[in-house]
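Worked problem 6 (solution included).
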Amino acid sequence: MQKLRFWAVMLAAMLLDGSGRAAVETIEIIERVPFADGASFGEVGSYEKIRAIAHFALDPKRPANQSITDLALAPRDKRGLVTFSAEFILLRPIAAIDSSLIYDVNNRGYIAMLGQIDGRSPANNDPTSLADAGDGFLMRHGFSLLFSAWTWDVTAPPAGVKPLIFDPPIAKGPKGATLTGPLVNEFTVSQRAEITTYAGMRGLTYEPAIEDDPAAELTERSRPSEARRPIDRHFWHFLPPEQKGSAGRVQLEGGFKPGTVYELSYLAKDPYVMGAGLAGIRDLLAFFRDQNFAGGKPPRQVMIFGISQSARVIGRMLQDGLNVDETGKLAFSGAYLQVPGAGGSAGFNGRFLQPTRHPSLLEEHDYPADSFPFTTQPSQDPVSGVTASRLDHARDREGNLPKLIISNNSTEYWNRGASLNTTSPDGAQDIAPADSARVYGVMGAQHYVGRSRTRFPYVNCVSTTDHTLAMRALLLALDRWVAGGPPPPDSAYPQISDGSLITVEAYDRAFPSAIGLTPPTQNLREPRLDFGPNFTRLGIADHAPPEEGPAYETRVPAPDADGNDRGGVRPLELEVPLGTHTGWNGRAPETGFAWATARFDGSFLPFARTEAERTLAHDPRPSLAERYATRDAYKARLEAAAAELVGQGFLLQEDVARALSENLGLYDRILSHDPGDKSCAYLHGG
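Solution. The predicted structure is:
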């Protein structure tokens, strides 16, 4: 193993104030190879891949580390520092170009950015081949890409797969005593099962402090709002994980059944210092910001990018001031938060929290994933009377804030409280973003680009809107903005003031009737959660489950006459529509939760092909033939709309051909599809 030890970095830090502050102490390079066999990416040239391990040390006494829950209870070395390590992967141009570095917060241990931006997730989570670069967008634009381990709750991977898994310090009581505390896990099953796991989605959880804890409780209910019904302790018991590194299991006599929300409460032990993972991100970025690593020069600027869970990590770092390093400087100058929903400010840094968990309309309403404040400008919570913003602790020593892009899709307005980013907590008024932030709502798009060829486990075919094209344009805009260039397009999101952000009841009245899509009767409205005074002050729950207070009021985008969302960023799929794209989809009755919406998916229903088909179906939406006389007429409309989006800054000129091809391909497949065939495979080419 080749080792590069940056003792000079550590020494320089110690000389600053003599306190022994270290942050990144050493880096061990374990692999350094040409990326994609030395393939050249346009004018940028070839890339290299470096896989390494960074060793960190944190001083619990330093102000920059005071927000990290339980850091003072972690084991320390002889210097009084908390030490840990994290594996990272760096992809960077070999030529010494003036490039920006983007840190991709991995999602549950897996690289997310390459799949979303370049269109290809690397095989085995190990970017190696030219295929792993997708269309090479990020490489052609010269970005250095950094990925590192930050979370522990990643279930054991299949053979050969290499997730980035963090091994955090464990908090201890006086004289190394084991710490325990209450823990609640919520789970459902999609089919009858006598044995199931009780961890969050694709994750792990803390196991009981007492084997098969006799005091543990298992409850059931049909909806989150219903009272919990205890299940007799004699009828169920804990089982160990099926394999090492997997989640624990529970067995119920007679079996678990669909349509039921189960909740398992018990005493857990050995809480991880989860905030150390966030500090590791901070300090790794600060290191690369300043150091000539392995023969390369520091990047022009450092940015951070996250999708879904990963975006909520960034939100928590900003909330806790963990975007500012121990010297008082910004660890990153720009941040892109993609589909974070309400923002996730409550998770990721607290005792016995589990990063993989988050609420939807169906589940996890008692998990502290989102809490006030939500907006980048100060707003007041009418229940508590507190006035605050999510950026109150995010300024550096000179008062600077990182530049932010916060972008949600239509699905996040239905299932993740996205409207709270730009409204007061009571949903009564708009709150404009801070000058350092841009907020976007991409209409008609679901959490990820829909590719499912079947309806099940949902009622409708999924939405086909490709929001990744807007992401690519906005990422380059953020890079220019951080570098001192012009800002990205003005914020564009549904608003109360212009009627494009409304209640679910108003949505139902405005949505076109008798078209074959039935709107939901509710969206996610998360309750205010009270875990006790120590949770707010120290991140430690006094009791679980929490007491529930009044729900935050959330709103949804208003539909137009076709059922497509108004306001925000309207991509080609909505500007020149072939059908109705919604941010919601119903769950199939067979799942047992027909009243709930899909967690991540929207819906798509094409227009009738001809006026005769429309009349026969009693569809109020004009047919494709009425809208576009010929394929060439449709193409001309697409080209004009694409030019407008390019001018607005939501589509790159280099992506116009792809956007036209995607939409023309769908047009052709709809025209050749028998409407009597209810499958969804025709929506997707290839």
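Discussion: Residues 564 and 629 are 21 Å apart (CA to CA).
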